[in-house]
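All the exercises in this workshop are built on plain-text protein records. The record below serves as our worked example for the rest of this section.
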Amino acid sequence: MKALHNWNLSYSEARELQARLAPRVQLTRLRKAPRLIVGLDCAFSKDGKKIFAAAVVLKPPDLELVETVGATRRVNFPYIPGLLSFREAPVCIATAEKLKSRPDVYIVDGQGIAHPRRLGLAAHLGLFLNKPTIGCAKSRLTGSFEEPSAQKGAYSLLKAKSAVASETRQETIGAVVRTRTNVKPVFVSVGNRCLLADAIRITLACTTRYRLPEPTRLAHQLVSKIKAQAR
């Protein structure tokens, strides 16, 4: 795991850091099917002073449960739209460091490069983890899209104006993926070391009877339990 920077940053320093880190995201094709996939999700305490994270490792193709871990940290960064990874990434990293197994792919409940500065939580974590990482979010943060058809497996591209201020071109930053027929889509984007096609394929392969892929769905259940048990 790479130690890219410390977390004691101001608002302006965090924005500048995102701009420096975003070009490091690697858009490279996955060369083999993942043997272990981990889902990561976070939750905050009611008073907003603590943050919890959970990781659930599953083994494809049957999505057999392999391992679960969790961690708790104090919140040390204020809520600022577009900078959520500075609140959530430290506890996610602490959770990932507890894993005994070595997952091949991480699916994160959050954005990858589908972010105004192309560095959402999944992309930020992907650089620290140095592993193929996928962002699978429940809602859109930025960009525009056409509604995909209603059938499971259908998707449309999520596009946004280039993050380079001097450019006016549109670029593809993710996909709007229908994981269940006639159910709201999810927003999938590259976090690191994969292509959008890989991210879509793995997300759909991990989706069974529910809207969310099993790794992050189960991670959400686990982090909710950790939160409920915390004092």
Summary: The radius of gyration is 17 Å. The chain has one domain: 11-140+189-229. The chain has five helices and eight strands.
